[in-house]
Amino acid sequence: MAIKANREYRNVELRAFELKDEEYIVEGYATTFDDPYVLWEDGKNVYYEQISRNAFDEADMSDVIFLYDHEGMVFARLSNDTLKIEMDEKGMKVTADLSSTTQSREMFEAIKTGLVTKMSWAFTVREDSFDEKTLTRTILKVKKVYDVSAVSIPANPDTSISARNYVNGVIERREAERLQRQKEINKIKLKIKLGGKS
To answer: Which residues pair with 141 in a beta bridge?
Structure first.
């Protein structure tokens, strides 16, 4: 799978899709709002992420496409009305019509029979925040949604590269802040030890 720089990828359940008769329609939620999920575990801490209800208000979703493993043939897309994305109370709802080609119908069958059980979506972030107490990242504004993809390997480590990079940045920042605080405490201790002399 070709992972594009700066794009973030998140796995979501594909088996939650409802299949309507033999119309080759799949439906589901690419993400839910204000519902924290595990972003990364580093052995010491568990980091969480959630998507704000208003995160997509200004997002570029001009031509999102439905792919397999974030690459290759396009099975559905917004610009030709075979893919629909709407925000409702629960989250970002995706509806895809996979009837266009032999390959897209084969993808439908793979989903229907449970051979493909997960999906992922690719996006970039415009604005986020991090809660130090709960170790939760909140995505406040999504910049662009590139695709929603059926994925073959649910735990594909490549899809978590961006999550790991984000968390590593948080860990590095927190460690730098801890070292700075320790430095200041050591200065105060030295000053006290020297009898208040500078």
So the answer is: 127
Amino acid 87 reads M
pTM of the predicted model, to two decimals? 0.75
Q: Is 91 exposed, middle or buried (0-12, 13-18, 19+ CB in 10 A)?
A: buried
Give the C-alpha separation, 16 to 12, whole Å.
Answer: 9
pLDDT digits 0-9 by tens, 177-192: 878 888 888 888 787 8
Return the pLDDT at 187: 83
Among residues 189, 72, 92, 71, which one has the least CA distance to residue 139?
92
Q: Tell me the CB-side half-sphere exposure of residue 125, using CA atoms within 13 A.
A: 18
Q: CA quadruple 90, 123, 175, 185: dihedral positive or negative?
A: negative
Torsion of CA 27, 28, 30, 35, to 10 degrees: 160
Which tokens belong to 52?
């704000």
Please tell me the distance from the alpha carbon of residue 28 to that of residue 71, in angstroms, as a whole number: 20
Residue with tokens 């080609």: 101
Backbone angles phi, psi at 109, to 5 degrees: -65, -40
- Look over the chain and give the mean of its residue pLDDT values, rounded to a whole number: 83
Q: Quick one: three-class SS letters along 145-178?
A: EEEEEEECCCCCHHHHHHHHHHHHHHHHHHHHHH
Query: Of the given ranges (21-35, 44-58, 68-82), which has the lowest mean pLDDT?
Result: 21-35
